[in-house]
Amino acid sequence: xxxxxxxxxxxxxxxxxxxxxxxxxxxxxxxxxxxxxxxxxxxxxxxxxxxxxxxxxxxxxxxxxxxxxxxxxxxxxxxxxxxxxxxxxxxxxxxxxxxxxxxxxxxxxxxxxxxxxxxxxxxxxxxxxxxxxxxxxxxxxxxxxxxxxxxxxxxxxxxxxxxxxxxxxxxxxxxxxxxxxxxxxxxxxxxxxxxxxxxxxxxxxxxxxxxxxxxxxxxxxxxxxxxxxxxxxxxxxxxxxxxxxxxxxxxxxxxxxxxxxxxxxxxxxxxxxxxxxxxxxxxxxxxxxxxxxxxxxxxxxxxxxxxxxxxxxxxxxxxxxxxxxxxxxxxxxx
Amino acid sequence: xxxxxxxxxxxxxxxxxxxxxxxxxxxxxxxxxxxxxxxxxxxxxxxxxxxxxxxxxxxxxxxxxxxxxxxxxxx
Amino acid sequence: xxxxxxxxxxxxxxxxxxxxxxxxxxxxxxxxxxxxxxxxxxxxxxxxxxxxxxxxxxxxxxxxxxxxxxxxxxxxxxxxxxxxxxxxxxxxxxxxxxxxxxxxxxxxxxxxxxxxxxxxxxxxxxxxxxxxxxxxxxxxxxxxxxxxxxxxxxxxxxxxxxxxxxxxxxxxxxxxxxxxxxxxxxxxxxxxxxxxxxxxxxxxxxxxxxxxxxxxxxxxxxxxxxxxxxxxxxxxxxxxxxxxxxxxxxxxxxxxxxxxxxxxxxxxxxxxxxxxxxxxxxxxxxxxxxxxxxxxxxxxxxxxxxxxxxxxxxxxxxxxxxxxxxxxxxxxxxxxxxxxxxxxxxxxxxxxxxxxxxxxxx
Lengths: 334, 75, 362
Fold this sequence. Notes:
Chain C: This is Hydrogenase formation protein HypD. Chain C: GO terms for molecular function: 4 iron, 4 sulfur cluster binding; carbon monoxide binding; iron ion binding. Chain C: InterPro entries: Hyd_form_HypD, HypD_1, HypD_2_sf. The complex is a heterotrimer of chains A (about 325), B (about 80) and C (about 350). With about 325 residues, chain A is of the alpha+beta class. Chain A is built from nine helices and 13 strands. Helix content of chain A is about 30%, strand content about 25%. A seven-stranded mixed sheet of chain A has the order 8-10-7-11-9-12-13. Chain A has a four-stranded mixed sheet with strand order 1-6-4-5. In chain A, α1 (about 15-30) runs parallel beside α4 (about 100-120) and α3 runs parallel beside α4. Chain A starts with 13 loop residues before the first helix and ends in a 13-residue tail after the last strand. Chain C is an alpha/beta fold. Chain C folds into three domains: about 5-65 and about 180-245, 3-Layer(aba) Sandwich (Rossmann fold), CATH 3.40.50.11750; about 65-170 and about 255-300, HypD, alpha/beta domain 2 (Rossmann fold, 3-Layer(aba) Sandwich), CATH 3.40.50; about 315-360, no CATH class. Chain C has helices spanning about 5-10, 10-25, 35-45, 45-50, 65, 70-80, 105-110, 120-130, 145-160, 175-180, 195-200, 205-210, 225-240, 260-270, 300, 315-320, 345-350, 355-360; strands spanning about 30-35, 55-60, 85-90, 115, 135-140, 165-170, 170, 190-195, 215-220, 245, 270-275, 280-290. In chain C, the strands form three sheets. Chain C has a five-stranded parallel sheet. A four-stranded parallel sheet of chain C has the order 4-3-5-6, sandwiched between helices. Chain C has a three-stranded antiparallel sheet with strand order 7-12-11. In chain C, α13 links the parallel β9 (about 215-220) and β10 (about 245). The interface of B and C includes residues 2 and 67 of B.
């Protein structure tokens, strides 16, 4: 039977020390972290991109990833979207008493692997253990920083009428994967989470394309919600064509009987890129050459007719609003 | 109301059918369907129960006739 | 993708039908659907934006969430607070506002045990997993859903699961349509009949629309071609001065419906008077659990009564459901009443016509 996590491990005493050296340094160690000072000593220059996110997911392990890799990818991607090279991340853990040590070790190993692949160092961290029931197994907070290397960098406020709207691949893979594993709702879907670090591809795009106005990752709330945010921030209309939005057959199938819309499902390894039309083909070529974006597509363009709104052209040629999501989507029967 | 979708039957045992849509597999109960379904049939599923067999040939035929009618009128 | 599914969404075919609709439409045609899935399909597919101005689309009392009465909502919210009860429900009911803006989501946050299930059958499994508790399934829906719950009660009985209960607020479509068409102020020229309700009940219960009231009605599927074809049928019937109840969804609906599902539904349930939101009590428009299955009836087993609650002030959902006003003609629409802060159920339900207007109308 696996050893269980005790409250002592968060006490700051010898048990905490064992956890730090036996697990955290083993999987996450690097010159900065290994010093174990009160804070990390970092050398950064110029404008900085910084982002923080807290991760809770049920189940902890899912096809295509786990809470550890997700916590790294989510923050690395957010930092990169501002036109930055992510360099360092932090890792704060809130653990529930009684958590299997094996489970914790698998997650920390996954954090280490994901950080190495993304090319970032975990430079500081924190662990708290709370009594059983006060948290659900494990919550992870990561904060990331990176150096911005393009000015002006991409921003949600910079979409301009005439710009092309591109997405890097299929929509809803992560959201449907998680739903399919939810207790009480389990069904078998041949689909995996798309959780991935996008920073290497983002850096390449920004280096090779002279002008990119917006980069955003459509995570919670999906494509519909993220595009609505951009339309509001930039005070423009985002016009998109449903037939050009790639959605896997399994995601469409799962959504059909649960009464859900793939355009509102979360993605964890995709991004929206809005840029002048003349650079669209080049950007798509770069994206499609990367395994993370082989299904990249232009899905529409920025217009000025309905500022603050996303307008969807349906496959039969009708038009409708694509509104922001109100709360989480619930499976429905009617 | 009444979201119901066609799913294809892959196997049947004990009043429960394994069904698929777009590669997504699920289970549905057969207590309510009025004709014995076969593997390969499409059934219309609502809230975990198959309610009727979908007659795809009939569906295609209806549309074909309708479309022909429309075209006749247009010419 | 196979050809039937492609054909039913074929843009070219849709355009030809819209072309015919434009040519053949004479004056204004007000049609009403009585099915939330139609409401959503018509908006989501973009069909609505393709229709000429002369076609007025109205959404009637066809969303089970929207027609669930405030007293019924109050009853299940009270139920959720009981310590010995686990409430099992379709996701649809989670945000329906009751008195004082309470809803199941809020009750859950306060500690009520509420479980969203995909099938009523899942609630029986939940009951097996919690033998010390009573698992009460909230039975809402029309003739499509009621048989699935009847079958589930029979399965629970055979399996000897005695802690599974159903709170039956099921409603029947024909009686409420009777109330609609008998209203002297009714301004509907044609009815789009709910395809999946008719899949169970068949066409017979709807013949009175044409025979007695001279209103054409077509049983309709949910794809763009199905919907447009029915609208063209309405126009053609009217142009010829005819009214009939016809089946435009033959691939799924037999004229006699599904006799097996009807039999199971009738074995477990019996017609009873039912409360409809904004419309009041309608005779024989609901389904109560028969005495033979009384052990599974939450009302009998737990001694539940429907609390008296004042109607929602200013809410015009009743007029919307009767097709008297469009959602955007309600003074609360988009001002006081939004999906984030819904006053009435037509705004909270994904299928509600107010929510659809808010969400899809450019």
